[in-house]
Write a structure and sequence with these properties.
The chain has 557 residues and is of the alpha/beta class. The chain has 16 helices and 27 strands. The protein has three domains: 280 residues, Ribonuclease Z/Hydroxyacylglutathione hydrolase-like (Metallo-beta-lactamase, Chain A, 4-Layer Sandwich); 148 residues, Metallo-hydrolase/oxidoreductase (Rossmann fold, 3-Layer(aba) Sandwich); 102 residues, Ubiquitin-like (UB roll). The protein has an eight-stranded mixed sheet. It comes from Methylobacterium terricola.
Length: 557
């Protein structure tokens, strides 16, 4: 039973208004004594050009850290990186138990063991269809179909109502590996009474229903069977159903499967341990590739998103130590480029085609299906669960707006337009956004975590556009220049628009500026540095049209 003053709260900290970095909090109790649970703790890939040097992004957990003493646990819906990828870096800020089903738990552990210095995490296994009680929350893991085994929605029961957090899901009655999404189960939840549906928005702009994994498997089998030479298939390493489909197709036509890439190896080990590769012949390591006849091999490669260091990119540049392709071989992209990765994927495709290799993508063949629901599937979910409140999540602004309109058309009057950092009261009373809490992004810069407001990123971005000029000037105590100034340029062209030699332009500007300063000012190092800085930027702008960053150092001798 709820007490007077109790509230049911939802606070997304990541994944709402963006794709990736999924993390959300549910709170229950009076405002000053709430208990909390977190759902997922994922990362995003920094593919944006305005983030030079940054590879990964994590949700800002400042608000969750403030609630740490009342945070009861982290519930993981499934093992994709945008739902688990921040655990290694961000869990030490929270240090609470993490709950996941076996495959996901083992995947997190395998990932941790592959990262030097990663913390030992308090992992607790939840059985399939399992339930657990954490304070005022009673959580049921509800299996759903997705592009990875053991994906789950969460039925979160509280004294103020049932919230259904779908996680990533779709409808697929023949999933090849992993769960299907049960109409019976979700109808049962709907009959129990769903207060709020917090639902995936990724494919809300697409009509109809997603094809099944079994349809992709059949088409992959045909493409592999009909290929006269080598076949290489790239897909998300975590897509065990696709991996199993490739293995079955290869087995049917007498080919061996070779797996290439550390992420692929890691998932294969976990999938085999959990029984998802039972009944298949051995998947061989990359070292076997060179000993197999050209027409008797299928390579499973990482790198479907254009990652520069992944196996496929290295193969496309003919830089891989063990894997090479020849004209007439076939590469199948059994994946779709995540928004932001299109250019990198396109570059690999172009390199392969220039090398005479046949490339097949989902633009022309059924070699990939999404793990997220289209509109017909979403309509079924709303029909089964009949929620009083809809909260669109897992999408950019376009997806969330489309989902809000769609939910109203399904008969849901109360739709909350959440964004990262919105603190939403779901009950009691009408749902509303009460306030906004701190949210944002944390960047992984090398081995360091930096706030999105850190000056390093905008400074680095500026350097990428304008370069830098470094000047060292030696002055004695009387303000006389000793020797020639040392000038170094990075990122500037050699010549100006009329053929001026840029380094000579800078040298002349330095000399002119120093000679124009009084002897008194030349004894002031800071005044000299500022004057030379302004002069260089102005002179270079005259001949180039850009003002470089400058680093001027005066050495007193």
């Amino acid at each position: 039973m709820s007490n007077k003053g109790d509230e049911l709260i939802f606070v997304p900290l990541g994944g709402v208004g963006e794709i990736g970095m999924n993390a959300g909090l549910y709170g229950f109790g009076p405002p000053k004594a709430r208990k909390w649970i977190m759902v997922d703790l994922g990362m995003g890939f920094a593919s944006e050009e305005h983030l030079p040097g940054v590879d990964l992004m994590y949700p800002d957990l400042s608000f969750a850290e403030e609630q740490r003493e009342n945070l009861l646990g982290i519930l993981i819906t499934h093992g994709h990186e945008d739902h688990i990828g921040a655990i290694g870096e961000m869990w030490p800020k929270l240090k609470v138990p993490i709950y996941a089903t076996r495959f996901t738990k083992n995947l997190i552990e395998a990932r941790r063991l592959g990262e030097p210095g990663a913390p030992k995490v308090d992992m607790r296994e939840v059985p399939a269809d399992g339930r657990l009680d954490l304070g005022p929350f009673s959580i049921e893991y509800v299996p759903v179909a997705h592009s990875i085994p053991e994906a789950n929605a969460l039925a979160i029961r509280t004294p103020l109502g049932l919230v259904l957090h779908t996680g990533d899901w779709k409808l697929d009655d023949t999933p090849v590996a992993g769960n299907s999404t049960s109409e019976e189960t979700f109808t049962r939840l709907g009959e129990e009474g769903v207060l709020a549906l917090v639902c995936d928005s990724t494919n809300v702009t697409r009509e109809g229903r997603s094809p099944s994994e079994s349809e992709v498997a059949a088409h992959l089998a045909e493409l592999i069977r009909n290929s006269p030479h080598r076949v290489a298939v790239t897909t998300f390493a975590s897509n065990v159903a696709r991996m199993r489909a490739v293995c079955l197709a290869a087995q049917a036509c007498g080919r061996d499967v070779v797996a290439v890439g550390r992420a692929m190896d890691r998932v294969i080990d976990v999938a085999r341990e959990c029984g998802y590769l039972d009944g298949l012949p051995e998947i061989r390591g990359a070292e076997a590739y060179g000993y197999l006849p050209r027409e008797k091999v299928v390579a499973l490669l990482t790198g479907s998103q254009g990652e520069a260091r992944a196996a496929l990119a290295r193969v496309s540049r003919d830089e891989h130590p063990e894997i090479a392709l020849s004209p007439g071989d076939r590469v199948i992209f059994s994946s779709r480029a995540i928004p932001g990765n299109e250019r990198a994927v396109g570059a690999i495709i172009n390199d392969l085609i220039e090398a005479g290799i046949q490339v097949i993508t989902d633009r022309t063949e059924l070699v990939h299906v999404s793990g997220h629901p289209r509109r017909d599937e979403m309509a079924a979910m709303y029909r089964w669960t009949k929620p009083k409140i809809a909260v669109p999540v897992h999408g950019e602004a376009l997806h969330l707006a489309e989902h809000a309109t769609f939910a109203r058309k399904q008969g849901v009057d109360q739709v909350v337009k959440a964004r990262n950092g919105t603190l939403i009261r779901l009950a009691p009373g009408e749902p509303e956004i009460v306030t906004h809490v701190k949210s944002g992004r944390i960047f992984k810069d090398g081995n360091v975590l930096v706030d999105s407001n850190d000056r390093a990123i905008p400074e680095r971005r500026k350097l990428a556009f304008t370069g830098i000029v470094s000047v060292a000037i030696a002055l004695d105590k009387n303000g006389e220049v000793k020797g020639e100034p040392s000038i170094d340029l990075m990122g500037l062209p050699s010549y100006g628009r009329k053929g001026e030699v840029i380094i000579d332009v800078i040298g002349d500007a330095v000399e002119r500026t120093i000679n124009g300063l009084s002897r008194v000012k030349r004894r002031d190092s800071e005044a000299v540095e500022n004057a030379v800085d302004r002069s260089i930027r102005s002179a270079v702008n005259e001949v180039w049209g850009k003002k470089p960053a400058c680093h001027v150092m005066v050495v007193e001798v």
